[in-house]
Amino acid sequence: MALSVAFIGLGVMGYPMAGHLVRAGHNVTVFNRTREKAERWVVEHGGRLADSPAAAAERADIVFACVGRDADVQAVTEGEQGAFRTMEKGAVFVDHTTASATLARALALSASQREFGFVDAPVSGGEQGARNGQLTIMCGGSDADYAKAAPAMGAYARHCQRMGDVGAGQLTKMVNQICIAGIVQGLSEALSFARASGLDPEAVVAVVSKGAAQSWQMEHRHATMLAGKFDHGFAVEWMRKDLAICLDEGRRNGASLALTALIDQFYGEVECLGGRRWDTSSLFARTEMLRRTNRT
């Protein structure tokens, strides 16, 4: 069934996600902080351009957002021109931003007081997953709110699942980022070790990827890592933002995240190498620099 939806935030992820909603037959209104990008999206996909999140949310059945940080989510929801000011009773706000569970719970409470729903729904799959409509979406919210939003999210999801009450989606995304950080660091060390041992890293990957060491990172990133190409993918600065959220939550719930904290420091070293916008696989650049230093 065609819905009236709004999409706030047309970045690397949001731009193609909103396009998938149009292709699924929904009536889409968009808002982006940089207006030129929103104008380009409307030329490409159709739909309607709004001048503010509040204007985009008017009469929408579902309002989606995919912005940068907690402060950005706060601004587009409860800011002076935020979507919460105009959303109608019975609508649902779906936040695809990777943000804190604390913020999700606070916004859900605010939404309930205004008699509309809230679902925290961070995504995994990167730019390629967004473009191909193959994202994994981990959701927190009531059964009823999730049931309203899930069919629309299916336009760009490979897998979408409710993980529990509000905040559970963000907590699950933290688990995802903790796993990725550890895997990328392990892969970086393994490839560097292969080179240091005089092995052909490509041949090594061809063998070990057929066994228990296989991972998405190994399959999709080993070649660019070995080539020293990092001008793609998920930026280091955004991973550090996500890991900061993980570490803050770990301090709150008592989880030991020693490895995550160490890898976050390693990403800080990558930033010092000029890699703030490099892909997260650029941990390999740091590892290779240390290998060359140790040889001398």
Question: In terms of per-residue confidence, which ranges show pLDDT below 50 for 5 or more consecutive residues?
Answer: none
CATH homologous superfamily caption of the largest domain = NAD(P)-binding Rossmann-like Domain
Mean pLDDT: 97
The helix content, as a percent range, equals 40-55%
CATH class annotation of the largest domain: Alpha Beta
Largest sheet report: 6 strands, parallel
- Gross CATH architecture of the largest domain: 3-Layer(aba) Sandwich
Number of domains: 2
As for the CATH topology of the largest domain, it is Rossmann fold
Spatial gap, N to C terminus: 65 Å
Shape assignment: elongated
Cα gyration radius (Å): 20 Å
Reading the helices and strands in chain order gives EHEHEHEHEHEEHEHEHHHHHH
Look at the helices and sheets and give the structural class: alpha/beta
Q: Beta-strand level of the residues, as a percent range? A: 5-15%
Strand order of the largest sheet: 3-2-1-4-5-6
Please explain how this structure is put together.
The protein has 296 residues and is an alpha/beta fold. The protein has two domains: 4-164, 3-Layer(aba) Sandwich (Rossmann fold); 172-295, N-(1-d-carboxylethyl)-l-norvaline Dehydrogenase, domain 2, CATH 1.10.1040.10. Helix content is 54%, strand content 14%. It contains 13 helices and nine strands. The strands form two sheets. The chain has a six-stranded parallel β-sheet. Strand 4 (62-65), helix 4 (70-78) and strand 5 (92-95) form a beta-alpha-beta unit. Helix 8 (168-196) crosses helix 11 and helix 8 crosses helix 12 (258-272). The termini are far apart.
